[in-house]
Amino acid sequence: xxxxxxxxxxxxxxxxxxxxxxxxxxxxxxxxxxxxxxxxxxxxxxxxxxxxxxxxxxxxxxxxxxxxxxxxxxxxxxxxxxxxxxxxxxxxxxxxxxxxxxxxxxxxxxxxxxxxxxxxxxxxxxxxxxxxxxxxxxxxxxxxxxxxxxxxxxxxxxxxxxxxxxxxxxxxxxxxxxxxxxxxxxxxxxxxxxxxxxxxxxxxxxxxxxxxxxxxxxxxxxxxxxxxxxxxxxxxxxxxxxxxxxxxxxxxxxxxxxxxxxxxxxxxxxxxxxxxxxxxxxxxxxxxxxxxxxxxxxxxxxxxxxxxxxxxxxxxxxxxxxxxxxxxxxxxxxxxxxxxxxxxxxxxxxxxxxxxxxxxxxxxxxxxxxxxxxxxxxxxxxxxxx
Length: 386
Known about the structure:
By secondary structure, this protein is of the alpha+beta class. The protein has 8 helices and 21 strands.
């Protein structure tokens, strides 16, 4: 399996907790063709085909494609494909997530920087009432509400993976948008507000086939998209100082080399650093220093939620946590999650933490033992020299 395929499968295994993805990703006889549920990737032709259906024919829009059961009231198409699978498919085509739209201060003014990163074109293919196959740029189905043209390209923003493993676009349904959303997989490469009073596009009703019509969405990277100037990576730091970049383990010693390679490929890279609440500041500081040595200087530091702090550190914390659990077990109807199920999950995390602490203790004992031997040898040699 090629490196990009392995990387893509690793990403989607993290996104949404999908360990069965390797089974779902079935290469056809042609090894360049990869099939996922409702989505096919042709790595040779550099093309993605996603199965969708018409969900809306009139009204203002925020989406071109949303997930089934989410935002059909503002999206021309909906799909049963996983948004995380589309992200993986774009990785298979060697693209890297870019940067979503953001507000920046310029002097006394606030300005919006549009989404930036690797760009793709999107076409729609369907059969008309006579059974004849039709194909058109996706923008053909969009009617601008102002003095703007239909979008000809979209940007691979890439959404994000939540600390609990869920993929943001799968949670919110923002697969391909025409208004700027941080959670989108693909977004338009210009400022496009999601303010209902200022939406840029509405459905071009007379050009769109009837509701329920199956439509293939064809996504193709533009030339050079794999080395776009703007790109984004996620660096996670756990409570033991272990590092992962986009789900792949990496040592702090290798971080500067990784950053240098990332910067050579993308001239304006950003790294989102997401430490665990229990991560030491020294680990965070060193990670930033190593990234700077490699030439990456655009950081976004986002600590994980305090909910991850499940291991009490004092007897007072033990007492207060146990009091809360007594309340949950006594009044389970007052809580959204079943306390039995939630407590089982917490116990697994606590036991995992205990195992890591025991491993760390063994490591420190070995370190102390060998250092003591070296110290004793040094003192003996110094005394003998006298």
